[in-house]
Amino acid sequence: MSHSERRVAYLVSQYPAFSHAFITTEIEALRQSGWEVLPVSVNRARLTGHPDDDRTFRIKAAPMTSVVQANLRLLATGPATYIRALRSALSRARGRGRPLRAILWQLFYTAQAAVLLRHLERSGVAHVHVHFGNNAADIAAIVSDLSRAGRNRPNITWSLTVHGPSDFRDAAKWGLKEKIRLAEFVTSISAFGLRATREIAPTEPASKFDIVRMGLSREEFERVAESAVSAPLPPSGDRFKVLFVGRLVPEKAPGNLLAALKLLSASPSLAGRHIEALFVGGGPLADDLATAAQNLPASMTVEFTGPMGHEEVLRLYRWADVFCLPSLSEGLPVVLMEALASGLPVITTPVAGIPELIIDGESGLLVEPGDVIGLEGALERLATDPVLRKSLAGKGRLAVMTTHDAAVNVERLAERYSAVVSGT
């Protein structure tokens, strides 16, 4: 395969983002295997200082003159194809809620797709991969249609990674069934996700779907486990330190963790010990959680740090005794992988793809979603049993290293890209 054929664009609604470090990991794994990856973000980035800042093409940052010129150029060189692409985009709005608004958005997406198509042509990119079934997938589908305008213009194909649960919950809103039909292939991050994706589009051939698990790079494995591998977990001492990393939204259930910690502070088994908890992340529940954390018992300290950079979070994995993510709804969060890789025992819930990584009582503890009493019991078990903490930490680290090595997992993705760009 020539160098020009080992080139792909990654299109995301917003890149980079605090919660999308796994996309950066996937991109870097592809680059290390010899692929050239051009990041594209629909929106302007909110996260600064990212290694891909200068390489990321931001569609909404394009001047209005460029948007107008890109669309007029396509109308001039292939008016019939442009009109067909626009009609197809508008037809996809009919089955969505609030159809008038959906039609207006498709008009915007078509204008943006023309800008992106020009960038891809100049960069020599013939395939676009999209993470999440949102507006980025709409734009990719239109780019593919528009690329058929003009004699000397190569067709641009696209593919999709479905994450869930928002992809599944908003499937009708985003027209996910139609996007699955239009994409060259569709990957999911777990077996659970694969089943759910195929249920949305049951008539599509099985060969169209694949599992490509998110993972950590080998460098990340080394960094997060820098001190945890060579040294045993710290003794419990007189403090029990609990870490939560995630958006402060109802789906992550940070309020359940706070309630469980309050119950734990009253347990006789922790008499004389101080509970410290860090909640890392921002979101709409921040103010409510801060209010709920007022008037804590003297044996308990809670801090809400807001969003933090990746390097800062890695250091906190080595600070904590336990990582806890009591989510009601998830895909397969990378923070769990990082916590396991760092040598931390984890407590979480058996939702979506999580049980594919964590076996209850072996590589972590699983508590039913919404069960505050069960969550308090799991925290108490780990607070009072350092032997169990050490056992879960060791087996959890082995599990994530075995199944979530980004360099290994991305090989399957690269095979799918190769087949598409070479036409085999």
List keywords for this structure.
elongated, alpha/beta, 424 residues, 13 strands, six-stranded parallel beta sheet
Detailed description of the structure:
By secondary structure, the chain is an alpha/beta fold. Helix content is 46%, strand content 14%. The chain has a seven-stranded parallel beta sheet, sandwiched between helices. Helix 4 (99-123) crosses helix 5. It starts with 6 loop residues before the first strand and ends with a helix. The model is unreliable at 227-236 (pLDDT under 50).
Quick recap of the structure?
The chain has 424 residues and is α/β, with parallel strands linked by helices.
Write the layout of secondary structure elements.
Blueprint: E1 7-12, H1 21-32, E2 36-41, E3 57-58, H2 64-77, H3 79-91, H4 99-123, E4 127-131, H5 135-146, E5 157-162, H6 166-169, H7 171-174, H8 176-182, E6 186-188, H9 191-200, E7 209-211, H10 218-224, E8 239-245, H11 254-265, E9 274-280, H12 286-292, E10 300-306, H13 310-319, E11 322-325, H14 334-341, E12 346-348, E13 365-366, H15 372-384, H16 386-403, H17 406-422
Parallel strand pairs: 1-2, 1-4, 2-3, 4-5, 5-6, 6-7, 8-9, 8-11, 9-10, 11-12, 12-13
Helix pairs in contact: 1-17, 2-3, 2-4, 3-4, 3-5, 4-5, 11-15, 14-16
